[in-house]
């Protein structure tokens, strides 16, 4: 009911490209003006998190970028067949599309600005195809003829309702003998040979020999009760569903690089998801970014009326190198972490689970998954 309720539903090889790539330095003066549709921030939040911001920028160095892109590519490649297996086993395969997604560029300058990404896609053998305006019109005729070029990311998938996919996976877990227990957790501590999760206001507890913390952005506050202070920031984002005028649709997600939004065809309508807003995890919603994105989207597509009573808000937990933590927490035996997936948690969750299982049951696998070790920040 959290981030997977509201993401763009994309399972894409192109997600290996982190936000803090070497080209970020050139973009920084423009982004710091805090008036773009792609990136917004609350000044007081950034002021409190200058250490995280500095480390985030330092990890945009070419050598670190290469390590991160290779690690994310491995995780995405591992996740895709696991998603297909789970979709079949859970009965949710009908929600899958294998039509890829399309990046849209409004000018030659914007196209040239994407050269670094295209080089990375070529390096990691992500299949792509450049589209001229006429070719784009053949694929997505409802788009307005305002785009100079487009890049079709192939060999990738999307789903028409990520929430229903995750719910189907949860049902599969139950049918396989698993159980869910809900608890408002106030803290965790090591107790003898295992771990205890304490509920709020003296409510029930949970106990396990091996405990996995996989709470996305809420992992930070819970892990503080063990003395672990995660260097995590929150890239918030919004979505809204729309009808299409006269039944207009897109057949796959499209990313308007100049407009700063993704438009995805969903079971509930056309879902518009926004770019990044840096702010506290639980800060009140500020839908100005959605309003800006909607205005740009209406330039490109005949959006109809809003279908939701209010904008949805999600949080993306981001570590300074844009890689998740997957593995055992240093000096905390039996405490396992699977968190910090920034924008690609839905894409990479199955691969994360597979890596975590390997690490739990095969100590020799640590070298293979060194890039995700929690010890790089703990």
UniProtKB/TrEMBL annotation:
The keyword Oxidoreductase applies. SUPFAM superfamilies: FAD-linked reductases, C-terminal domain, FAD/NAD(P)-binding domain. Signal peptide: none annotated. Residues 60-359 form the FAD dependent oxidoreductase domain. It comes from the Bacteria. Gene3D superfamilies: D-Amino Acid Oxidase, subunit A, domain 2 (3.30.9.10), FAD/NAD(P)-binding domain (3.50.50.60). Keywords: Oxidoreductase. The keyword Oxidoreductase applies. This is D-amino-acid dehydrogenase. It comes from Achromobacter marplatensis.
